[in-house]
Amino acid sequence: MRPKPPAGTLLAKLDDLPDPGARAAAWEGGAVLLVRRGGSVTGWSNLCPHAALPLTLPDGRGLLYKGETLVCPVHGASFELEGGQCTGGPAAGDRLTPIPLSVEKGEVRAA
Ligand code: FES
């Protein structure tokens, strides 16, 4: 299990996140994955439930398919971005661990 950021922790500037896109926050070595779609950002523990490996590439990028599905780069499990449920691949029946966020004044913070 990866650590969860304390409430109020600055995780990213909204303008620094790809849109749509996914990127590890620069907190605790990339322990939080941020997914941006427009002005909305969702946060997830950056750990795939299949084999407990990072959901991001070594450079911190996450893989979105059609801007709507997160794909694990290790074995290809896919996850929907509303509740984090696995929709295909070897993590079937599992889901991502959400990290509550707030987005205010262009800053993404842990809630
Ligand atoms: S570690 Fe993500 S699908 Fe295997």
What can you see in these coordinates?
- The protein has 111 residues and is mainly beta.
- The protein has one domain (10-110): Rieske Iron-sulfur Protein (3-layer Sandwich).
- It contains no helices and eleven strands.
- The protein has strands spanning 10-13, 21-24, 32-37, 40-45, 61-65, 69-71, 78-80, 86-88, 98-99, 101-104, 107-110.
- The mean pLDDT is 96.
- It binds FE2/S2 (inorganic) cluster.
- FE2/S2 (inorganic) cluster is lined by residues 48, 50-51, 53, 72, 74-77, 89-91.
Q: What is this structure's SSE topology?
A:
Blueprint: E1 10-13, E2 21-24, E3 32-37, E4 40-45, E5 61-65, E6 69-71, E7 78-80, E8 86-88, E9 98-99, E10 101-104, E11 107-110
Antiparallel strand pairs: 1-11, 2-3, 2-5, 3-4, 4-9, 5-6, 6-7, 7-8, 10-11
Key terms for this structure?
111 residues; mainly beta; Rieske Iron-sulfur Protein; 8-stranded antiparallel β-sheet; 3-stranded antiparallel β-sheet
Instruction: Please name the CATH topology.
Output: Rieske Iron-sulfur Protein
Main sheet attributes: strand count, strand direction, barrel closure: 8 strands, antiparallel
> Rough shape?
globular
Name the hetero compounds present.
Answer: FE2/S2 (inorganic) cluster
Which CATH architecture would you pick?
3-layer Sandwich
| CATH top-level class | Mainly Beta
- What is the total tally of β strands? 11
Average residue-wise pLDDT: 96
Cα radius of gyration in angstroms: 13 Å
Oligomer: single chain
Count of alpha and pi helical runs: 0
Strand fraction: 35-45%
Number of domains: 1
Give me the strand/helix succession.
EEEEEEEEEEE
